[in-house]
Structure formats: C-alpha cells, structure tokens
Design a protein that fits this description.
Structural class: mainly alpha
Mean pLDDT: 96
Number of helices: 8
Shape: globular
Bound molecules: manganese (II) ion
Low-confidence stretches: none
Strand content: 5-15%
C-alpha cells in the first residue's frame, strides 16, 4: 500500500483572499506531494509496515525501524498534518462551532474568543516552523498546543481536530513576515462542521 496525495474538495482559489491560489497550489502540489512521495519511498524498503495506517505509524515511532524513523516522523507527519489542514478549511460549512463542541469549548476555555486567543498565541509564538492545534484526549477533553516541524499531536496520544500550518510556505506569498495577520484571517475559512465531526470521532 502506498499513500496518495488527497485531492482537495475545492479549487485552489476557493479560500481567497485569506489564502491565495498560488500558495494553495504550491503547498498542495509541491509540498504535500513531496511529503507523500518521501513517506512512500521510505516504506517501500519495509513491506512489513505496508499494512499500517498513517495514524498507526505516527502513534508507534518506537516500533519503526531506526533507519526510517525520522523520515516517518517528518514526512509521515507532513502527510497526515496537511490532509487535516485541507479538510478543516473550506469555502462553506459552519462558521462557528456546533453541537457538543460549542459546549466543550465554553467549558474548557470560557468562550470561543478565548480559545482563539490561546490558539493564536501558540500559532504566532511557535519559533521557526510548525503547527498549532486544537486537540482532544481520549476522554474528549480539549487542549491547545503547538508542535515543531511536522510533529503531530497524534504521536503523543492526542487527536488533532483543528490545525494551522505556520511554516512560512503556508503564508509567505501573501503575508510575508506577518504571520499574525495570516493567523487572524485564517479563522474566517474554518469549516466547523468538519472540526465537530472529527471531535465526534474521537
Ligand atoms: Mn505545509
């Protein structure tokens, strides 16, 4: 089995003006395609791993042969994280949290605004390249965190339900060094239906 680059369910220009079409095209067809190709190349040498899902691979680094462990961490993480990123963004969908997620956000953070503030702080404050996340633990408790590089919360037992890529390749054409502006604008393109669905599946 090899992993396939997920197709977007919307066009490259669908998220404009928040994310421009050129950034989307390069990000999906070059960066995400690159992670996909690299994880597949690494796994080719290890047919014993070929039946494992990406989630399983990222949850069990300890069992991965040392020769490809870092590749799986970086490129497998890149493969998984970007698939989630495309999914949680959409031109349509609910513009605010729905269902039981609304209640959990209020219970955990006090309000949606407070969640956004904590999340944005993680996203803007992450030094260098990485991600910020809203994740759930096995008890469905929510937390906000950030990770370096392509590390994913899934490797530490959490399930990410919302994530923003803060590598410069995600925003530099449009926002240059102003990461905070990208993070601020990004809230307008979240599809909260998908986030809620992911939360329900935890
Ligand atoms: Mn990226």
């Amino acid at each position: 089995m090899s992993f396939e680059l997920p197709k977007l369910t919307y066009s490259y220009d669908a998220l404009e003006p928040v994310i421009d079409a050129k950034t989307m095209e390069i990000h999906h067809s070059k960066h995400h395609a690159g992670y996909t190709k690299s994880i597949n190349l690494a796994l080719e040498k290890h047919p014993e791993l070929e039946s494992l899902s990406i989630e399983k691979l990222l949850k069990s680094f300890g069992d991965i042969p040392e020769g490809i462990r870092i590749t799986v961490r970086n490129n497998g993480g890149g493969y998984y994280n970007h698939a989630l990123y495309w999914e949680v963004m959409a031109p349509g969908g609910a513009k605010n949290p729905t269902g039981g997620l609304t209640k959990m956000i209020e219970q955990t953070f006090g309000s949606l605004d407070e969640l956004k503030e904590q999340f944005s702080k993680e996203a803007v404050g992450r030094f260098g390249s990485g991600w910020a996340w809203l994740a759930s633990d096995a008890n469905k408790d929510l937390e906000v965190l950030s990770t370096p590089n392509q590390d994913s919360p899934i490797s530490t037992g959490l399930t990410p339900i919302l994530g923003i890529d803060v590598w410069e390749h995600a925003y530099y054409l449009n926002y240059q060094d102003k990461r905070a502006n990208y993070v601020k604008a990004w809230w307008d393109i979240i599809n909260w239906d998908v986030v809620y669905q992911k939360y329900q599946e935890v």
